[in-house]
Amino acid sequence: MKTALIKSLVMLGGLGGTFLFTGLAAPAPEYRTEVVFFEREKFTDVRDQNFDNDKNRDAILEQLKTYLQERAQLYVPEGAKLSVTIKDVDMAGEFEPWRTPAGHDVRIVKEIYAPRIKLAFQFTDANGEVVKQGTRDLRNLDFMRNSFGNFNEPYRYEKALIDDWLRAEFPRAKKNTST
Question: How far is the C-alpha of 91 from the C-alpha of 109, rounded, in Å?
């Protein structure tokens, strides 16, 4: 049975089976926010382990970038553009290897290890006119008490910083609820 299935799949591949798979890829979403990392290799702390590699760091940054682009869609109107340059990331927590008997890398999240993101931004309207720009040092010293949502969400404290910044920097227009 398995052999017949494998032969069928091989035949499909030879007869244009690639057609079946090329249509599955979704087009990349159109974001109104551009995110660039400036000298990411010099960031204070972007890693899951004490001795992490560039590939893991880039994967974490890609998650934060995608999150920022998706969340900014709620705040950046059509036609406008937000350009963000992230200059540093210091994730919540610190490594305390002495906490395990074997001295393994363990990130401990305590109130004294607040997350921080340094960024520069430029917000332009549909005509290309600069509406707002500046640099920000995002930090929430009360991050453990103010973080809501899914506790299994990776990098939830850093994502909460992004949400707080977007809400404060680009307040959305309130919808008229009167009739």
Answer: 9
